[in-house]
């Protein structure tokens, strides 16, 4: 019996080392999936635009210049409005690129916080079971009884519109869903031999949950994280469209759509261009998730 436990104990570090390399391995293998490559290219494009926004030769996104200028119109200072201007005379190209920065920062941060909370809830419920599972699952079910976007709207409307409120709203709306995914994975993983080996070594429950269980549940979570980033972008845009997102005058794709809708066909580019930017980013996350799922099925 002792020799068997010793053998498992020797294998555990190897297993953890492989687990830490899985994410980078799958990113390297994404080139084998055309769908995943398209998604990664779309996301990379917007990430590059967001990072370079401060150094690109753009107009101030809040500067009021010439209203209702068409695509490619000449600017008063001799420049060019490459994507035209909106009803207030603000450059649409500048607002879209700066809006991408805001969306990516807050969507990534909100999703990260939601995953930290959701994973801790899920691994605790799945590993400990009993009353811990009952309490955590009950709390999660309460929040899951509300539709995702409705819960976000209620929280933001209650706390006020700001980037931090969006993070709180997304966390409350997404963490219970993440918790259920992690809980299901942990219920299966906790019966594995390396978990029994860790228990035999006298490891603490939190060590087993955070070091042994969570790293080995990362495969499906990586795919879900890509999809959830897309959902979060949709939530931020929806809140902005309803006037509950990032406070103006900061560029916000959802707010841009809200301001453009009353203009209709009179200035259609003010609505179609932000909508296309939003759709392309969401499509990128969905395609990347499909590519990662395709790669995982080959393993």
CATH architecture title: Orthogonal Bundle
Shape descriptor: elongated
Strand content: under 5%
**Broad structural category:** mainly alpha
Largest sheet: 2 strands, antiparallel
CATH superfamily, by name, is MetI-like
The number of domains is: 1
Task: Specify the number of helices.
Answer: 11
Q: What is the CATH top level name?
A: Mainly Alpha
Poorly predicted sequence stretches spanning 5 or more consecutive residues: 1-20
Q: Radius of gyration, Cα only, in angstroms? A: 23 Å
| Terminal residue distance | 32 Å
Largest sheet, spatial ordering of strands? 1-2
Briefly note the CATH topology name: MetI-like fold
Helix fraction bin: over 70%
> How would you name the oligomeric state of the polypeptide chains in this document?
single chain
Quote the average pLDDT.
86
Q: How many DSSP E strands?
A: 2
């Amino acid at each position: 019996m002792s020799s068997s436990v010793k053998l498992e104990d020797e294998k555990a570090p190897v297993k953890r080392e492989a687990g830490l390399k899985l994410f980078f391995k799958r990113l390297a293998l994404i080139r084998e999936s055309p769908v995943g490559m398209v998604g990664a290219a779309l996301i990379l494009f917007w990430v590059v635009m967001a990072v370079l926004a401060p150094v690109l030769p753009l107009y101030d996104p809040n500067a009021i210049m010439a209203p209702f200028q068409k695509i490619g119109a000449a600017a008063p200072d001799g420049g060019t409005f490459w994507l035209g201007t909106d009803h207030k005379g603000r450059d649409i190209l500048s607002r879209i690129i700066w809006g991408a920065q805001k969306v990516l920062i807050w969507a990534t941060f909100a999703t990260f916080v939601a995953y930290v909370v959701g994973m801790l809830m899920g691994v605790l419920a799945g590993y400990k079971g009993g009353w811990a599972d009952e309490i955590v699952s009950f709390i999660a079910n309460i929040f899951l009884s509300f539709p995702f976007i409705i819960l976000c709207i209620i929280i933001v409307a209650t706390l006020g519109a700001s980037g931090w409120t969006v993070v709180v709203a997304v966390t409350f709306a997404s963490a219970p869903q993440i918790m259920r995914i992690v809980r299901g994975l942990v219920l299966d993983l906790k019966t594995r031999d390396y978990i029994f080996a860790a228990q035999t070594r006298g490891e603490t429950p939190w060590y087993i949950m955070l070091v042994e269980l969570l790293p080995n549940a990362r495969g499906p979570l990586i795919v879900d994280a890509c999809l959830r980033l897309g959902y979060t972008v949709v939530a931020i845009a929806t809140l902005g469209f309803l006037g509950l997102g990032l406070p103006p005058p900061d560029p916000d794709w959802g707010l841009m759509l809200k301001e453009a809708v009353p203009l209709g066909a009179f200035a259609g580019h003010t609505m179609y261009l932000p909508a296309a930017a939003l759709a392309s980013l969401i499509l990128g996350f969905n395609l990347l998730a499909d590519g990662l799922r395709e790669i995982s099925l080959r393993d």
